[in-house]
Amino acid sequence: MPTKTSPIEINSDLIIRTFAPWLVQPTGLFNTTMPPFQICGSWVGVLPKLLDANTVGGVLPSAVLTLGLTISSSHSTDGIPSNSCIKAYSIALNLLRRSLESINDRWSIELVATSTCLCLAEAMLPTSQEGKSAHLKGVGKVMQLSGPSKFVTGVPYQLFVGIRPLLLFDAFETRTSTFLAAEDWRTVPYSIYSATPLQSLLNLGAAIPSLLERFDSLTSSVQEVDLLDCCRLWNAFGDTLHQFDIWEHLFRLNTPGPPYWRRDARNEPHLQEVPWQKLLWFPDVFVANALTHLWGFRIICITHQQQLEMRYPGVPSEGQSSVDCVPSVSELTSWICGSMEFLMQDEGRLYGAVSTVFPLRVAYRVFKEEVPSSEIKMEWCRKVVGRFVCKGVDLGSLL
After folding, report:
1. In terms of Cα–Cα distance, which of 37, 95, 45 is closest to 66?
2. What's the pTM?
3. Residue spans of alpha helices (H) in 101-182
């Protein structure tokens, strides 16, 4: 293999080893039967191909340099981003903004890759959440202009698989509907390569942000709320939960062996126990990702059903109740917390840490609503975030 000598090549290689370690050594945590290019983080493997094209304007090379410098800075003694790192980020962001103002088809794939690099850099930099959301929306517009048929195979497909989770979780944070929930965006990109279990789960989860938007519209209305609209929304959350039940049933049928098991950490001092829950262990990191996100999605649906029931007597009209849901919110949050130790193993590099953000945030917000009884659980979550910071991921805004 030729030696990588240029700064761009060196940083591209570092990004691959950090965010897609299974492309370098597909064993241990990453011992999976799934095709590597269908895994969310594998998009970084296409960076060398895109960089070889000597793209006009230098926006992608600038973003790769920024992400590489940020990773290197996170490994420094104090973990504080260097001035060169902040400067590189500022340059790359300005180049991206200018490029987004003159979008054309030839540049669209480059801009998707650039935005994804900067999103990952922002997870390790003290930047504003508003900035992250703004340029995620920019890359979403690039994708919409291209259309779903653009992302069926090759490099565009791998980039789509990589950027979709970032776009989707931004829609959860902003509680706004996303184009990713449309039928063509859930099916066309997978017309050649069948969706993996996690991708199928994200297809189902893409419907939730629009439900959150409806919920906020109902509960913030100054006019009298139509009880029928509340019941319809409650049922929509229930229908989504039912789809998750079907997904989990098929997932368990197609997973050889148990999808997870409990691990007693009392005799393993290198593992940090969860005070109220035994640790959960998984066959590989991708099974862990799928299940922890499933549990997070379920929590959101159940808790919003509960809020509708509390706010509007008569919801649901059929006499059902969210308390009938199995497993309960308490169980789901405990399972998420019990999974963190598995996902934070050093072998997972930064991929493992970043993949915990959504489910841990969901669990923490449940605990926050239960104060003071959940103060111990909230403190445990804060300690987990502290361990992320030590790994170089700035999740100060997570909680």
Report:
1. 95
2. 0.90
3. 105-122, 129-146, 154-174
